[in-house]
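Morning F.,

Quick status update on the modeling queue. The single chain you submitted on Monday has been processed. Sequence for confirmation:
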Amino acid sequence: MNEKKPYNLSAIGFGGLTISGVWGTTDDSTSIKAIHEAIAEGINWIDTSPIYGIGHSEHIIGEAIKGKRNKIIIATKCGLYLGEDGKAKRNLKPEFIFQDIDRSLQRLNVSEIDLYQCHWPDPETPIEETWEAMRELVKKGKVKEIGICNFNVTLLERIQKIHPAYSIQIPYNIIRREYEKEIIPFCVDNNIKVLAYSPLHLGLLSGNYNPTLLSHNDRRLKAQEWGNPEEVDRYLSFIEKIRPIAQAKNINVVQLVIAWLLNAGCVSSIICGMRTPLHVSQNIKAIAVTLSRDEMELLDFSRQTFSAHLLSL
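Structure tokens below.
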């Protein structure tokens, strides 16, 4: 077992969902080039899950990191599987976790997972049983750190009594801010890293929304917002309100939205889906963007107007 050292996650992490095929057709060779570009640009961690393409994302990442393992922190997850009905099912029973990690280790072609995370809570399994199993993986040397995704404060309080959580993943962005009330303060108080996923809210905050360009198997087409023209129009209106701020700073809307998260002060790292080397080079520029207090307040005011409109419906 390697000596345990604290991780210093890069401000942006490489999200493995978009290279899995669930967001439309992907090219594996291009995905590998994107990962290599990310490493070259200083991105030092990759996040994935067995459910992403039913192992395909982990397999591609395993191919991409050959000869580069010492340059990258690998984060994957457990607890989801595809049911016979084609829908994701939850299972955080210890026996499933022990099987799940061995499959991930094989696909990734590594001997140890740097950060192993429970993907979603499993209401059928006491969280104490789950977390004891996760702690056992640390003791066995299969995992260095353990974290969670999409947990509430009550569950966080229960697992902290057993073993400290390294991190939590939440779908946090300039629009989706409900986590600021309880989750984020708890994590700050308990030294739990906040990893923000879906910074562009399934692409609705990209400024490039066009559902006609999505392939029929793109998972985003099933999202409630994407299927509601009025909802989409509200997002587009929000984008147009904040676009002048991006233009004034000579950046695009994607970089502005990512920069807002980086400047918010409560996020340890952002998980960005990047299919191509170009996506990597564009997103990485957000790290250098500094937003003034006035700019942050203007962005927040635009968001409050957006939210107030939703509440009035």
